[in-house]
Amino acid sequence: MLIPDHILEKVIDAALSQGADFAEVYVEDTRKRQFSFLDGKPEKAISGHTLGLGLRLFSGTEQIYTYTNDLSEQGLIRAARQASEAMKSAHRQKAIANEKFQSFGSYTPIKTTGTEMQWNSLRLMDETARGFSTLVTQVHAEVAETFKNVQIMNSEGLHRQEARPYLNAFARVFSEENGNKEYGYERTAFMGTADDWHKVNFKELAQLAAGQSLRILRATWAPAGEMPVLIDSAFGGVIFHEACGHGLETTSVAKDASVFCGKLGQKVAHESVTAIDDGTILNSYGSLEIDDEGEPTQKTTLIEKGILKSYIVDKMGARKTGFKITGSGRRQDYRFAPTSRMRNTFIAAGNSSFDEMLKDIDFGIYAKSLGGGSVSPGTGSYNFAVNEAFIVRNGRVEEQIKGASLIGTGIETLSRIVKVGSELELAPGTCGSISGSIPVTVGQPPLLVSKLTVGGKV
Amino acid sequence: MSAHDNSVDQAIDHLLDKAKAQKLDLEVLAAQRSSTAISFNSRKMDQFSFSETRTIGVRLIHGKNEGVAYSESLDRDSLDNILDEARANAKMIHRDWIYELHTSNQLPEMKELFNPALESVPMADKILQAEKLETAALAYDKRITNVAYARYGDGHQQMWIANSKGLRGSYKMNVCYAYAKCLAKDGENSVMAGEYETHHGFENLDGARVAEVAARKTLERMGADRPSTGRYTVVFENRVSETLIGMITDYFSAKSIDDKTSPLVGKLGQKIFSGQLTLTDDPFFKHGASSRPFDDEGYPSQKTVLVEEGKVNAFLTNSVLARKLKLAHTASADRAPSSDLDVGATNVVVKPGTASLDSLLNADSKVILVTDIMGMAGFRATSGDFSIPIEGQLFENGKRVRPLKDFLMSGNILELLRSVEAVGNDVLQPTGNIVSPSVMVRGLNIAGKA
Lengths: 458, 450
Known about the structure:
The complex is a heterodimer. Chain A is α+β, with helices and mostly antiparallel strands. Chain A has helices at about 5-15, 75-85, 115-130, 200-215, 240-245, 250-255, 315-320, 355-360, 410-415, and strands spanning about 20-40, 40-60, 60-70, 100, 135-155, 160-175, 180-190, 220, 225-230, 275-280, 300-305, 305-310, 330, 340, 345, 365-375, 380-395, 395-400, 405-410, 415-420, 425-435, 435-445, 445-455. The longest helix of chain A has 17 residues, at about 115-130.
């Protein structure tokens, strides 16, 4: 219990006093520890405590949001009155008994002692990367533990809690040759506590980052123009996340600011494409027991064999569009009102083999490791960066290239995903949008896009 | 918590008292923020938000050891807890140097950062401002079918610094903004564009102008197609040039020099940029988003010329890195209550040239004016290599021919800034911390149609 029920009930009463038809409080208590290693020694040890409350009121489709970290009773009632005054009758149903959601087993709060394992892991990443090659000039490694407790109560009688522990680790390895500098970056992130660090292979993480750094250092520029692209599994799924996922969020759909508006039940992708947004995968980085509106999370089929089946729907999105809630209301923290957001989003496995897809390419690109991306849902134009790619000639993977960012527009690209491989893999990422930066995973099997624009040199 | 309470000052007093009793060297940073944001959509207010938050952080020095902890709760237990955590963290971090806390009993002020009148603007006027943004954009042209964002907002922030050597100071700032982003149907497709403006005075905010510019820019995107792949003469519009300069600002940080991650390692005094380029870190720049009276260690702000006619003139330092690297101390300490000591630029200002935008666009028979960068994921800061999506307008013989979309530019940011041939005279009032006119380069790699 973060804040006693009777106080939250008073806050909701005060919030509804001037005519809102719905009120919700979101209380967050997050503790975080962060340790990093740089230049072969401990660089950073930071501990933090985030504690605040977000209060949301609806009047029809109008939304009032306020947040504060003054959690005194007077402070909260004052915030609720201010929010309420910003609106023009509703009655609160009796809150049901506090339903405790201790997801993913039971957890002990974040530890403040015992950091030897963390420092040993950081030192191992540093030493592994430096030992990988004499060209390695710098290693930055970090581990972070976050323990987030959320408590949600609303005027419809919902009152739920969830504890969400996260682990994050990365290695960034810099290398230099003939005056050229590059870096490689490898990350892992999942739901777990300090007791779960043993699940991470720190040595492999450092080796992967170091290997990538050296390969990019020696790569030549990508060709520029339009060509077929074979996108590898795991983080390759960023293509669906950007090309389509954001456009299915009711945040854009409700404003008629998405190219996927009005397309439900229609063919929006090649028949080989089935796409799923699943919040229920055990310990996956984008998983939740309840969303940030207190709704149980779901597994939502977005596209089935090319046909658009569902949008990604939060509470306000449901009010505006009439679609059913999908348990997708998410926010970075109490500073943000929740909106419709992705969880673990992936293209389901198909039946093409990697070699079969490769054979279809006369001249094109094999994108092995992807970077971040972005999209303008209104126009459907999206882009993402490729960290490691190779030229494909006559069905064979040849020299490595760099600087191959890829662009396209959502529906056009979905229609050009002509083959989908059989081995699905997921990878963690951080998704930024109007309700802040949230943990997600993206994923796909390897897939073949018949034509994309590649940004390289002429 | 309200604008007039003294809970942050009391928390600082408590921490300093504890530090004194325990003979600890301590630096405290605190930030208190409040904000309002109002959005209209479909001629209704669809979002109204306001907030009040604060964070307090301590950096504890013990000989060569240093530890950081922060909290958003100011109760005594939380404050005592962060002291304990900072002490535990300090045991793990052993530096090569002994840190000296800055001592000064008189910190400079910069009263112009805060406009008291903005604090008393009636809520009804703010709502009207947001409504006007949408109404004016829709009224501009009936082809504007939707204003995806019509938003008014304001923010107020107060920063405190104090240390166990007696240093103590605070400053506050406020700002308001208007933002509009319009959508128009263009055949099967949609086009979008936006405009943003910030001011210290509510009365200076011109919502009608912001709405009209957003609407006009949106209509100018209609009928866009893709350029052919090739090399082009390119003019980066002022706001886009600001983004380009933003790509290199961290290169001047003595921290990234010391970490060996900056491409400018070993380049001090060398001419590696175009002679047309002079860049200054200016913490006093009027309306700059990062203006401040003193840095995050409490040293008075100062101007630093970073690049003088193409030559790398200085790196930005805090007190520790200035000593360690034997560089001039530029008072560029950058730290938030929740982070450890770093270095950062304040406002980075490009010295304007003499050329008008029109003359830049008429420099060659065919010129692409880049009006937007659509994503920065394809920029690799360590090497400077970039491959990033852009939008723009094609000019032929100085005349706008048609809008361009769905294409990329590729190259290296250091090479690009070395090949700048002309700097424009068209500087706008800043909306962020980088200020630049338009700039022109030739031979830039563009990837579009086949």
